[in-house]
Amino acid sequence: MSDHEKDVPEDEPGHELSNVPDPAVTDDLYPNPGLPEHHWRPTDVDPKAERRAERQVATLFGLSAICTVLFVVSYFTFDVGEDWDTIGGFGASNLTLGLALAGALLFIGIGIIQLARKLMADQEIVEYRHPAGSSEADREMALTALNTGIEESGIGRRPLVRNSLLSAVGLVGVTALIPLWDLGPKPNQVGPDKKYDYPGAGIENTIWVEGMRVVRDVTGTPIRPGDLEIGDLINGEPEGIFNGGEDGEPLEGVVLQINKSKGAVVVVRMEPDEIIHGEGRENWAVDGIVCYSKICTHVGCPISLYERTTHHLLCPCHQSTFDLADSAKVVFGPAARALPQLPLGVDEEGYLIATAPFDEPVGPSYWERG
Amino acid sequence: MDTTKVATSNTTTAATAKKPNRVGAVAGWADDRLGLAALGKKQLRKVFPDHWSFMLGEIALWSFVVLLMTGVFLTLWFTPSMGEVTYNGSYDQLRGIEMSEAYASSLHISFDVRGGLLMRQMHHWAAMLFVASMMVHLLRVFFTGAFRKPRELNWVIGCLLLILGTLEGFTGYSLPDDLLSGTGVRAADGFIKASPVVGTYMSFLLFGGEFPGEAIIPRLFTVHVLLIPGLLLALIAAHMLLLVYHKHTQWPGPGRTEQNVVGYPMLPVYAAKAGGFFFIVFGITAMMGALLTINPVWKYGPYDPSKVTAGSQPDWYMGWPDGALRIMPGLETEIWGVTISWNVMLPILVLPIVMFLILLLLPFIDAWITGDKREHHLLERPRNAPTRTALMVALMTMYGLFWAAGGNDIIAITLNASINQITYFMRAAVIIGPIIAFVITRRWCISLQRKDNETLLHGYETGIIMRSAEGGYSERHLPLPESTAYTLTARDRDPVPNGLPSGGTDDNGIPAPGGGRLAGLRHRLRTLYYADNAQKPTPEELAEGHHHAEHEHELQAGVDGHAADGHQFDGHHLVEDEHLRGH
């Protein structure tokens, strides 16, 4: 680059400036007045102003040093853990450290810029541009060198070597991609009796089985139909996440998270005659209590904003709205499918149970969903 | 260069080899080994032109440096793991709760590391500043035509920086594994699953099995602290090298032409200003970190896939595709045993890629339509390229409307309006809005061009109302100062569209060279591109305008030198001793 810029273009034969304006479209209506006259600043001509500016700059740098000291002091003075909400809710440590750091930095910045504006030479200088491209001569020489190189390599004359080399190099990239295949189990490897099996495994499955109780999401206690008044909504989970582990232990870690992301449900009670039962779903409700997957069929947010008068359930992420009185069909928003419904029943102890698992995959759509 | 009067604290002569000083000795030692003098003799005094708008890219650069520094600090304490632990730190409300190590360490940074919350907030604020300043810088470059030859490739690099910066932001705010960030990752999983054919496999590979798995946080961490920053650094280096090589563009003005660049030398003035500005950006970020809470992860609690907060929203730069997602009608096709989720695929996977490609190709589209193959180093005022300016304003309008749609719930609550109606309105607005914006901007630009011509031909308005002998009133106009007139006219005339080949042949029916099948389309586009633009006056118009002005001036000569000659506004006569209304 520097070698190129050393050349003064005018000295090079046959090197035309391609950025010379095309006379057909450009005309100078006025002669170029040239650079405006330079005006001396007060600090250039008045020694008093100069010394004042010096003092200003030095003061700014001094203030920065003071702020750095304050930073160190506040680091050792304030304990973040105990007083994080003091001083107007800012947290003493965060506030004092932050402001001291800001001061230490800003005063340096302002000082340097003041120095540049007041005390450094302020005359604009002119540099000449050169075309971005190389000169014709350089181009020809480079092209000649390139062709000589290609010629001497013999690649052009030996298509067998060239093509096999290109294919091999192209193919070797596969070795970088192939190992990515083991980033995780494939969808067809996860599920009951497959390589990766755990409670609720498989994208099309959940942990729900026939007879599993619907329980409250935080406490895991089962729900009686009488616990719900009309208009109530309970965030439910399958009992399996509280006792589905080995020896009836609660699920933990990944398996717990996976099952929460698929098994979560909402249980709502409404006037039985307000429910429009879907075809074949006439006995899926218990005394006006219906149960749907809580996972939005759009992109998978858990839905929980319920409006009891309209029976609408709204997803807070993208505002898809489902009518829980009408098979949770989409009444508004970007979702395309109704929320899957869980058929409800009551076990001999009087608690709500699923009488069957979901009859379709829950959550966002995917290609193989069908 | 005349430095005789420059503050005496500066030396007036350059260091010479005759009497080596300490700086010279160090430089000599280095040059013996690195040979940098050849570069230094040219680049140390490299000229950078001055204009406030050239500072926007600098904000992006320095906020990236702040990101690197605060980011390194955060990695010292952050644990990128989804392993479950029981929180035992200083924050009362979450003590005893099971959470991932990632979230626990985010809380640890916020409450148990002195300065940790400050670094976290500075990091997040700097990220916002980084993306925002890149966008504004991009707009500046586009509106002033700085993307034109020879700088098209630097535009492409800049666009890559923008998209990588956005992805870097997304991977970053997903790391704390709090409820909000987990909701974002959950949605991202839905987006991936909507990809045709490979979506389910991509999701399983990315998450290491079914969502949420336990792999996503460590993987995002590697992408966030190694992969994307590495790419960003390399591209920023390339961006800066090309900037140095091309030399900075400048505004036209007296003494400033296509062939030169006028401004301050890198050493000392520009280095000082840019270096000082780094401290200012850093300092302002620190002040924001101290005073403005951002992403209070402790309020959301650990991620739980069965919970969500109302008003869940991504960081603002992810808002516009989210808006597109919100207003998209719920279309889905089930055919031949597979599901195609148009409702997710189109707004989130297709639209951003299409918009990004359009952005990337803008310089090439512009050059293809105008057929302009010259180098450009003088900036154009946005008004002097009405179609180009209008195009970007249309794109900005579309972006803004999508972005607003991403907050349709917030708008509904704030304005107490129906979210359904807002959504229906937005569906139409994202298409109609840009068209309206295009037309208005274009006409606005052309009006401004005409106003410039008016001022050139008839002078500027002085505010002095003259009454003629007959009793008529007129406002006194005075000619523009020479430098202003020069600056206003230092622009190209647009090529005359009529003279361009149409339908692949010129006026004589001879096929245009290399016209191809698209020549007709190109001709039509070029005609539309320049249509109605006001050209700067011709020399004849200018001469006539001046003649007219002289004539008028003669009539008004009586007031020259008096209080009301209008020159008190352009500094041509002094007003200290004058009583404007004295007689």
Would you give an account of this structure?
The complex is a heterodimer of chains A (370) and B (583). By secondary structure, chain A is of the alpha+beta class. Chain A has ten helices and eleven strands. In chain A, strand 7 and strand 8 form a beta hairpin. Chain A is extended and about 100 Å long. The model of chain A is unreliable at 1-25 (pLDDT under 50). In chain B, the strands form four sheets. Chain B has a two-stranded antiparallel ribbon with strand order 1-4. Chain B has a two-stranded antiparallel ribbon with strand order 2-3. The longest helix of chain B has 40 residues, at 419-458. Chain B is globular, with a radius of gyration of 30 Å. The two termini of chain B are 50 Å apart. In chain B, 39% of the residues are buried. The interface between A and B is large, with 131 and 147 residues. Strand 1 (125-128) of chain A pairs antiparallel with strand 4 of chain B, so a sheet runs across the interface. Chain B: Pfam families: Cytochrom_B_N_2 (PF13631).
Name the pair of protein chains with the most residues at their interface, and give those residue counts: A-B, 131 and 147 residues
Mean pLDDT across residues of chain A: 86
Number of DSSP helical runs of chain A: 10
Side-by-side strand order of the widest sheet of chain B: 1-4
- Backbone shape of chain B: globular
Number of helices of chain B: 19
Q: How much of the residues of chain A is beta strand, in percent?
A: 5-15%
Short recap of the structure:
The complex is a heterodimer of chains A (370) and B (583). With 370 residues, chain A is α+β, with helices and mostly antiparallel strands.
Which short descriptors sum up this protein?
heterodimer; A: 4-stranded antiparallel β-sheet; B: 583 residues; mainly alpha; 57% helix
Secondary-structure topology with pairs:
The complex is a heterodimer of chains A (370) and B (583).
Chain A: H1 2-6, H2 42-45, H3 47-77, H4 86-89, H5 92-118, E1 125-128, H6 136-153, H7 159-172, H8 174-177, E2 214-216, E3 233-238, H9 240-243, H10 253-263, E4 265-269, E5 289-293, E6 305-307, E7 312-314, E8 321-323, E9 329-332, E10 344-346, E11 352-354
Antiparallel strand pairs in A: 2-3, 3-4, 4-5, 6-7, 7-8, 8-9, 10-11
Helix pairs in contact in A: 3-5
Chain B: H1 22-34, H2 37-43, E1 47-48, H3 56-75, E2 84-86, E3 98-100, H4 101-111, H5 116-143, H6 152-174, H7 179-193, H8 199-207, H9 216-246, E4 260-265, H10 266-291, H11 297-300, H12 319-327, E5 333-335, E6 338-340, H13 342-370, H14 386-405, H15 408-415, H16 419-458, E7 460-467, E8 473-478, H17 482-489, H18 519-530, H19 539-556
Antiparallel strand pairs in B: 1-4, 2-3, 5-6, 7-8
Helix pairs in contact in B: 3-5, 3-10, 4-5, 5-6, 5-10, 6-9, 6-13, 7-8, 12-13, 12-14, 14-16
